[in-house]
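To the wet lab folks,

You asked to see what we're planning to order before we commit. Fair enough. Below is the target structure as tokens, and below that is the sequence we designed to fit it. If anything looks off to you, flag it before the synthesis order goes out.
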């Protein structure tokens, strides 16, 4: 299917871009390290969807909007993964199915379509049984721990993933979270005000590093990460929910829209020109947006005889930039990755400046990426 050839090439191209230490995106602290595992999950999802088409024809794409598969596909893949063991138990082994296929051909002089579908189904469930995919919600993971020298609090860099069902967009969140929980401060902060080196922390750690809050944080992240919420709202909700967690920065990376020749219809100009590109592997455009919200300062908590108020972050929204204000962010970057042949087609049509206005553009050719053209 042309769509799978395009998306495979796009994800491979983004992986090349992320791993290039000269790329602008790589220079964002921990961005590449955070994003690459999610790309692997997304690639595994597409591999499984393609394998599923060998015996099931149902697969829908959000052609007019995101260019990614509709949410039902994500839900079905997760359901299949959970039921893989029981489904495999009900399907004969591949060797037995192949023997039955050979026998059918000899006896009936016809192709054994039903047996072939069973074999394809068997192989599909074998590949997804223990796989890691881009599920509706990918649980948080902590990848960095340090201490803020000013506040003397430990802080974590924690990330999680969400495939938004309404916008049909995969998203990656990461947050810098200070923790004032007394037990965590005592454990993680040494007498010198730095990270206690006597504490062995085998990073990455599944979930928030604070064990008392980890389960609750998982539940909060799943309920508060939809695309309809601005990053400012997500950060403020976390700040309100957890008295001793102080999110000083939150980043959201929104993958998409994705444009593929002959498949998507989310931009008429791009679609018309991409249709003129010969190979599916070169007839696509992948965009993504990096949104950041950071704390301007912390409003100190107050402790009184009758009541107390916890410390709260005051977030900076760049109101001088209308698009930043609309997104609810301090800063943002819009990126576009496109194969050299497709970029040439847009340039020759005189549409490159229009299509890439406001974007940092990256052109991929083989294993090389040229940025900021």
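Sequence we intend to order:
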């Amino acid at each position: 299917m042309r769509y799978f050839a395009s998306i495979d090439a796009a994800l491979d191209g983004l992986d090349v871009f992320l791993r290039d230490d000269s790329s602008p995106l790589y220079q964002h602290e921990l961005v590449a390290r955070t994003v690459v595992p999610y790309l692997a999950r997304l690639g595994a999802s597409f591999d499984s969807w393609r394998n599923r088409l060998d015996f099931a024809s149902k697969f829908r794409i959000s052609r007019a909007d995101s260019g990614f598969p509709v949410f039902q596909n994500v839900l079905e893949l997760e359901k299949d993964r959970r039921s893989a063991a029981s489904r495999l138990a009900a399907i004969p082994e591949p060797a037995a199915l192949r023997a039955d296929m050979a026998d059918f051909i000899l006896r009936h002089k016809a192709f054994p379509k039903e047996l072939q579908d069973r074999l394809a189904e068997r192989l599909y469930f074998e590949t997804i049984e223990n796989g890691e995919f881009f599920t509706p919600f990918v649980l948080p993971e902590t990848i960095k721990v340090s201490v803020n020298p000013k506040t003397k609090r430990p802080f974590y860099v924690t990330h999680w993933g969400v495939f938004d069902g309404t916008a049909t967009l995969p998203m990656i969140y990461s947050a810098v979270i200070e923790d004032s929980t007394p037990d965590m401060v005592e454990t993680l902060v040494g007498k010198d005000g730095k990270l206690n080196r006597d504490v062995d922390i085998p990073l990455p750690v599944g979930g928030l590093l604070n064990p008392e809050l980890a389960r609750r944080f998982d539940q909060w992240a799943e309920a508060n990460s939809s695309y309809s919420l601005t990053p400012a709202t997500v950060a403020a909700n976390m700040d309100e929910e957890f008295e001793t967690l102080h999110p000083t920065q939150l980043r959201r990376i929104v993958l998409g829209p994705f444009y593929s020749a002959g498949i998507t219809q989310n931009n008429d100009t791009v679609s018309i020109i991409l249709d003129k590109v010969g190979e599916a592997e070169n007839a696509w455009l992948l965009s993504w947006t990096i949104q950041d919200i950071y704390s301007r300062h912390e409003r100190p908590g107050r402790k009184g005889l009758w009541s107390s108020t916890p410390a709260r972050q005051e977030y900076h929204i760049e109101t001088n930039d209308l698009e930043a204000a609309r997104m609810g962010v301090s800063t943002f970057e819009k990126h576009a990755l496109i194969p050299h042949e497709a970029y040439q087609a847009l340039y020759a049509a005189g549409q490159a400046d229009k299509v890439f206005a406001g974007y940092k553009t990256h052109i991929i050719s083989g294993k090389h990426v040229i940025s900021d053209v």
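Structural context that might help your review: The first strand starts at residue 137 and ends at 147. The first helix runs from residue 2 to 19.

Thanks,
Computational group
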